Amino acid sequence: MSDALTELADFIRQGLGDAEEGRARSLLEALFGDRYHSRHLETTMVRDALGLASRGGTSGEDRASSRRGASRTAEGVPFAGIVNPENPPSGPYGGASVVWFPTEDSGSIITFVVGTRGLSPDEGVLVRPGHRRRVAALRRLLAREGVECWTKPDPSALGVGVPEVARRRFPGFEGALQRYGELLYCIAKVPRDDRDLGRLVVRSFFDLYAYERGWQVLKGAREEFDCLLAALRTGVFPHVTPDEVHELLLRRRFVVLQGPPGTGKTRMAEVIKREHFAGRGMTIQFHPAVTYEDFVVGLSPDTLEGSLRFEVREGYLLQAARAAADGPFLLVIDEVNRADLGKVLGEAIYLFEPGEVGGESGRRVLLPHAADGERTFTLPENLYVLATMNTADRSIAGMDLAVRRRFAFVTVPPDRSVVAEQGLPLATETFDRLQDVFIEHAPDDALVLLPGHSYFLASTEEELRERFRYELLPLLDEYLHEGLLGPCATELQAVRDFIQDAVGADGRR
Fold first, then answer.
1. Can you list the alpha helix ranges (DSSP code H) found in 339-472?
2. Which of 117, 119, 84 is closest to 99 using CA atoms?
3. Is the pTM higher than 0.85?
4. CA-closest candidate to residue 476, choices 445, 455, 458
5. 144-190 pLDDT tens trace
6. For the segment 68-95, what is each residue's pLDDT rounded down to a tens digit?
């Protein structure tokens, strides 16, 4: 592939090299008209300070950095990149930028960095939850490709430097990290010996920057651009498979599937029971009326022969343990957090310790009643527990920490691929609009309210419209009425109105 981006990526990969002065500027300017629309190019946005090392000089940025008290490790730190076009054509700048720092011997790192003048004029980008989440998703995306990458939890947290453990991952770039460490919020090493991977890293940074700036991407680059955005959406809500949960079950024994309603947690548990346990399992559902006597052991009245007496009744846990004596057995607990777990588990909580289950040395408890002649009870090694938990219901109390630490937790997010595979454009478009609102604006604790993919599944468009009208719209109305989305309520209202118009609802709230 020979295009402006590939040429730029090749230039960045080589490091400082022997390129003629001004080469970085010409390559950056060539992106506009080749990858992004030429109308977005302004003379104030391109910075080329790669001659600092050879000139032994100090750029306006470096002088500003010195005034801020940053120690200097070299006469100049060469860099080049694109900054907010509202800045002056030279000297210190502010706002978000995409910049690379080349060296003679170690190649280049490419970064997202805030100018020494501070967040302005990009406060709206740098403090927005969506930008932070996309940058974190970019790190995960590149890490899966074997790229060394680091991100700051909060891009707007000026004064928070690159931690030492992260600095050690980028040897050879000490000058840039010391000079600008408090301003960098995403760093990736550009692979020097892998042309395709180097292009991917450079493309990802520039395309994400273009997305945040709202630049028009030209037709020839649109597919790559859209693929990156889809990957970043997926990265915000990592996909999990039944096979992965099963592998975790084998290691940890006690697992909770958590997430908002409609993400298929119960369905996944049933798939695991059917496909990985050959159907050997039982499913129960917790609710506020479930007691210790229901789950562990209790007494049941027996009026046989006209007299009242009590017999010991084994609860679900003891029944599952008995079944596990004949081979691997899965106990599925649906809606586990709807019951008072401390009271339901009682002393049995002591048994839920993954590394100390079953066998002669395993943990045991003394039951209040003898079951099948035995007062002591232990969990057999063949018993596995898989629970589901709704994270969106604010009326349910959080799980007790003593219980929580005994389980491994897997978040099951809404899955866009399931929606797209059914081939209903309205479903996919609506899902994307809602997901974008949550990713872009919702506080972290409100992400769990994103409706699951089951709200978008239907056999026909008519059935889909009916689901939207009678299931999805009432849910969104409830969110808005209760004020659960905080600062993104206006954005959610706009999507809600789009859905109403699309399905032809009568508008009554």
1. 341-345, 401-404, 416-421, 425-441, 461-467
2. 84
3. no
4. 455
5. 999 999 999 999 999 899 999 999 999 999 999 999 999 999 999 99
6. 333 233 347 999 999 999 999 888 999 9
Q: What is the Cα–Cα distance from 78 to 382, expressed in whole angstroms?
A: 61
In the sheet that holds 184-190, the strands lie side by side as: 46-49, 79-82, 96-102, 108-114, 184-190, 149-151
Question: How many angstroms separate the CA atoms of 305 and 480, rounded?
Answer: 60
Contact 76, 52 (CB under 8 A): yes
Report the alpha-carbon distance of residue 205 to residue 397 in Å, rounded.
41
Question: Strands 383-390 and 254-259, how do they pair?
Answer: parallel
Query: Six-digit token pair at 396?
Result: 């349910």
* Strand, helix or coil for residue 405: coil
Strand order in the sheet with 281-285: 281-285, 329-334, 383-390, 254-259, 408-411
Buried b (16+ CB within 10 A) or exposed e, 123-145: eebbebbbbbbbbbbbbbbbeee
Question: How many other C-beta atoms lie within 10 A of the C-beta of residue 390?
Answer: 19
Start-to-end C-alpha separation, the chain: 54
Q: How big is the chain by its Cα radius of gyration, in Å?
A: 29
121: cis peptide before it, omega within 30°?
yes
Using alpha carbons, list the distances in angstroms from residue 439 to 57, 112, 171, 415: 43, 20, 34, 14
Alpha helices (H) in 127-241, listed in sequence order: 129-144, 164-167, 174-180, 195-213, 219-236
As a whole number of angstroms, the distance between CA 122 and CA 133 comes to 16
Give the Cα separation of 103 and 449 in Å (integer). Answer: 46
- Quote the DSSP letter at residue 162: -
**Residue with structure tokens 């027996």?**
302
Low-confidence ranges of the chain (pLDDT < 70): 1-2, 19, 52-75, 298-310, 312, 356-361, 370, 373, 393-400, 505-509
Distance CA 453, CA 400 (A): 29
Q: Where on the phi/psi map is residue 274: left (φ > 0), alpha (ψ -120 to 50), or beta?
A: alpha
Which tokens sit at 189?
A: 């090493």
Give helix 265-276 / helix 242-252 axis angle, nearest 10°. Answer: 70
Cβ atoms of 455 and 262 within 8 Å: the answer is yes
Cβ neighbours for 57, distance < 8 A, ≥ 6 positions apart = 51, 75, 76
Alpha-carbon distance 355 to 84, whole Å? 54
Residue with tokens 């990985």: 276
